[in-house]
Structures are given as structure tokens and as C-alpha cells.
Specification:
Helix content: 40-55%
CATH class of the largest domain: Alpha Beta
Order of helices and strands: EHEHEHEHEHHHHHHHHHHHHHH
Oligomer: single chain
CATH topology of the largest domain: Rossmann fold
Number of strands: 5
Distance between the termini: 58 Å
Number of helices: 18
Shape: globular
Amino acid sequence: MGATLVWFRQDLRLTDNPALAAALERGGPVIPVYIWAPEEEGDWPPGAASKWWLSRSLAALAAGLEKRGSHLLIRTGPTAEALARLVSETGAAAVLWNRRYEPAAVARDTRVKADLRAQGVAAESFNGSLLFEPWTVSNQAGKPFRIFTPFWKACMNRALPPLAKDAPQHLPAPEHWPASLPLDGLRLEPAIDWASGFREVWQPGEAGAADRLERFVAEAAAHYETDRNRPGLTGTSRLSPHLHFGEISPGQVWRAAAGSQPFLRQLVWREFAYHLLFHFPESPRTPLRPEHEGWKPDPEKLRAWTRARTGYPLVDAGMRELWRTGWMHNRVRMVAASVLVKNMGLGWREGAAWFWDTLVDADLANNTLGWQWVAGCGADAVPYFRVFNPTLQAAKFDPNGDYLRRWAAPL
């Protein structure tokens, strides 16, 4: 049996990885590869915070592979050319990967699959990122959902993916490994060390994801419904960056947290975001309800918002948390977004672009859904005229001022 290339992307794990499992079932050497091709991401190449996380996650994946007698090959794009070269260098008979759903990635992957098959190479993709892929869930008319509650109900009537497969203990290696770029050759880490606060908070990689899930289930899942809106508490899972980079599968999370129905709804909200992005690929730039969109650019106001100088304590605290940790509590995200769009009169796209560059969990599907929801111009949006009062929100969800005190220091 010829070698199989496993093309890693946003599935940087060895446990419950369908493409990797399929490669092992084929028999023969398994050659893991990561291809850095940000120019193929359309308008949304990875932002600065995402690149920091990616660097650490790739290092963790490489270490896990080395323990199993394998190696992570790193190449740069164009992807189709890089894979063709690797097929030639290794004599690989197949290339396997887990699917992505962003418009640019879908178009690229479709071309890659066609090119490989035209060369006589088996090319197959798998679901390694979602519980329910977008084309498997539709309303009674066969159309995509635009409202969450019926989407949730439809998902609950479907079977969940099979049980997670354990990480392999060993990966069969080729007789000779092709050349690989060093990870630091991708220059993902910042030249100026602005990410020191990130390192204090996060452990990118599969082990960090598993630890985060275990702690959430043990310490917070039972109180998720009441505590998830309290930014001063550790009431949320903080699994979003781990899920985005595929360091843990949603199936693993679902089964571990099965006793917390409110949390499962949030996991399906993530599925809803991918459902919308796949069926409405123009949504990162075009609102689903354009009749409710109105804004005008104002660079000074935007700078005040990004630099935590809005004058609203809860918003400014959230922007400081974002700057220092690469993350912001979801309740505060909603308030900060509402202030930008409703109070300051700026565009949701400007806020989405800032979050894209600064969040370690920057995810095109979820970022788009969240910003359009708050702006009132997206699917399942709150009434377009709703405004999150930052003062009342702070009083309700941070009544003791714990969050405000923690992030009170100016940037």
C-alpha cells in the first residue's frame, strides 16, 4: 500500500481525527503535512493573535507526532503545488483531510480535490469540525435555517457523530522523510513580544484543550446557566480557540458536557454559525438584513474603541482584557459591539475586523454571526433597535465590580 498524506488544517489533534483514522485504515506509511498559505484565505488571512496561537498549536502537534514515531512536514503554498510535489517526492497514493467551510477554503479545497484525482491520486475529505455539517440540516422546505431555535430542534432530532477514536499510539513512517521547513521559518510569532499575557492564560494544543474541558466539566458546567454571563467569574468553558483550531472535536466536548443543556445550546449556536456561513458565503461582507444597517466611518471614534477609551467602564475593561489575553468574555463582547455600532454609529465590519486580528479564537463563522446579531442586521438578530446599556449591563452582570477592578489599569 502506498503512503497517505494527511493534510492538517484546523484539526490540529490526534484524538478523534477522521482523516488521520482513515489514513491508518488504508495501511502503509502516514505522512502528516501542514501547508502555510494565508494568501488562499481570501479577505480573511489569520490575524496576529491567531498566528501566535497557530505557532504554539503546531509545535504541540509536532511534538505529539514525534512521540509516535512520526513527523510533521511543513511547507508553504500554493497548496495545490505543494501537495503535488509531496505526492511526487513520496509516491503517495492518497491525500486525506478534514473539511473546512469558509468560502475561500471551500473553493480552494474543491480545486485541490479535482487536481489530485486528475493526477490519479485518491483525494477524500471528512467531517472533523462539526456535529452536523451544513448540508445535512434544513427546514421543511429544504432551505437553510435563519432562526436558531428551529435549527436547534432540528439538530436534536439527528444522530450525533460516532464516539471519539483515541489517538494512535504509533504512526507508520515512510522510509525517507521529505524535507520540511522549520516552524519558526513561518514567522508566526510576533517580532515584538506583545503576547506575554497570552502565555499566562493559554496552553495551545491538544493537551491544553483536554485540560480546559476537564476543568470546565468539573468546576463550572453545573452552574453554566447562571454564571456564563458573569465576566468576573470563571463561568464559561473558554474552549473557543481550542475548537477553532481543532485541538478538540465538538463531539468530545458534547459528550463530556452532556449534563449541561444550556452549554450544549451554545455548542449548537457554533454549529448555526457555520450553517449560515456555508449557505450565505457573502455574509462576512454583506449583512443578511441590509435594511437594518446604517453607519458612517469615523477613525477617531474607532481608535477610541480599540484603545479602551470609550468612557464606558465595562467596554474599556473588555478591550483591555482583549489586548492583554487575546480573549474577551462573551457578555462583554456583546456590550462592546453594541456600543461601537449603536452608540458610536460605526460599522460592524470595522469591529469584526478588529476582533479578527486580536482574538485568539477569531473564527469567521462565529465572528460574523456575533457581529451581525448585535448590529441587528443578521440571521436570528435581536430587534435591530435594541441597545445594550453598558452601565446597566455592568450593574447586572458584574454587581461586585470584580471584572472592572481586574481590568481597570489603562493600556
